[in-house]
């Protein structure tokens, strides 16, 4: 089975919220305006991959394995 | 502006501070002023007799909050000091001058043409144009600041598909829009007339581009803007021509005000530290570019307007107050950077606010990082040394830290 690992590098994240807009429900900003993936992120891979591409600092990584 | 390392004890008298008058910014290093504010008055009311005053925020944490918290600190009425008290006629219409959620209408589609994947795709064409741009360096002496005016046009040529015959004009007019007081950009008899002429010429070119792209759309940003609709739900009317033009202006200004000055100030920092060039290799270049952006901080400030009563530190901010976040000061904040006045290409982490932060974080950041890294790669490959050969001329502007003239000599390997 394919598993997908979605991570946000909080040191790179600048809080643009682009991911929150293009993959609604899959990312939220924490209290320091840094993004983190939610538990739903795995179910909207299209959105998450768009977020990965559009993040202005390349902070999002999507790794498929299996 | 000269970028020096003021001795620790250099503090200035608060009563003498003028962060509005453009003249003060031409040569004099304002870092002692900003440091004084960070130490003695991190949230300081800047009075302007007879005109609207504004808050000055100089600490990194406060500047970051102001640019990120768009609900409290709005961009809709202007984002530069010139807008304080008078607003901006393009307010609510452009990517720069709208708040979320409407901001995403333009930001997201535009990011599709400016994101990492697209930038990688355009990289070979950008490099080709860049190499062409650098050809005059081979003659030995060249005015590097002048040459770098074309650097953002190398990018805009790609992402907006602007024909090369317009590049020099657009770069000149964009410069005039930023610093109409500067003699280098005096197109008219007065700053106001210079500004009118520059706007007139720029919008005429944009109008032509829009006409062409309506007839024959491409994958460029102008075509993208034409396709944007104004409804958050996915349905809505296309932007009218005026809004498309205003947004073209935002992108051209965003690129032209910043990239050339980072290039020139970074090279200047290298010429001032002769040993450093010899230590550079390709792996060191991303760090050089990042530090160059922190060091230059091409936008001295970013302005916002409070939407509600709030507090920053001990200061009570009233709804309607204007706030200048001095990101150039934040980028020398002793609480965030070790030895902030040292130009350190190995600085890590380097959490500078040179590209801003939050929803308006520079959309051109991926492209800028790419082209600036390429620039120093190409220079390093060709030249053993680059030396300053004449006097520097700094830009007259309270907004942009710019170099107008910087004669250098490049000595081939
Ligand atoms: C090293 C070069 C650059 C620096 C340091 C820089 C800096 C900045 C900063 C500080 C902001 C935030 C403005 C604010 O919050 O009010 C910004 C926004 C922006 N920049 Fe850049 N910029 C650079 C290059 C570029 C380039 C090459 C482009 C061309 C696409 C560009 C286009 C823009 C645009 C359109 C915005 C507004 C984004 C928005 O409001 O969402 N910039 N830039
Ligand atoms: S798009 Fe990138 S920078 Fe913006 S909030 Fe998401 S992870 Fe952070």
UniProtKB/TrEMBL annotation, chain A:
Its cofactor is [3Fe-4S] cluster. It holds the Pfam family Fer4_13. SUPFAM superfamilies: 4Fe-4S ferredoxins. Keywords: 3Fe-4S, Electron transport, Iron, Iron-sulfur, Metal-binding, Transport. InterPro entries: 3Fe4S_ferredoxin, Fe-S_cluster_ET. GO terms for molecular function: 3 iron, 4 sulfur cluster binding; electron transfer activity; iron ion binding. It comes from the Bacteria. Ferredoxins are iron-sulfur proteins that transfer electrons in a wide variety of metabolic reactions. This is Ferredoxin. It comes from Asanoa ishikariensis.
Automatic annotation (TrEMBL), chain B:
The lineage of its organism: Bacteria, Bacillati, Actinomycetota, Actinomycetes, Micromonosporales. GO terms for molecular function: cholest-4-en-3-one 26-monooxygenase activity; heme binding; iron ion binding; steroid hydroxylase activity. The keyword Metal-binding applies. GO terms for biological process: cholesterol catabolic process. It comes from the Bacteria. This is Cytochrome P450. Pfam families: p450 (PF00067). Belongs to the cytochrome P450 family. InterPro entries: Cyt_P450, Cyt_P450_B, Cyt_P450_CS, Cyt_P450_sf. Keywords: Heme, Iron, Metal-binding, Monooxygenase, Oxidoreductase.
